[in-house]
Amino acid sequence: MSLKIDQDHSRFRAIVRGKIRENLRRYISQGEMMGRKGKDLVSIPIPQIDIPRFRYGDKQQGGTGQGEGDPGDPMGGEGEGEGGEGKQAGKDAGEHQLEVDVTLDELAAILGEELELPEIEDKGKSKIISAKDRYTGIRRVGPESLRHFRRTYREALKRQISMGAYDPAVPIVVPIPDDKRYRSWKTEAEPVANAVIIYMMDVSGSMGDEQKEIVRIESFWIDAWLSKQYKGLESRFIIHDAVAREVDRDTFFHTRESGGTMISSAYKLCTQLIDDHYPPDEWNIYPFHFSDGDNWSMDDTLACVDLMKQKILPRVNMFAYGQVESPYGSGQFIKDLRDHFGKDERVITSEIRDKDAIVGSIKEFLGKGK
Question: Are 162 and 204 contained in the same domain?
Answer without folding.
Answer: no
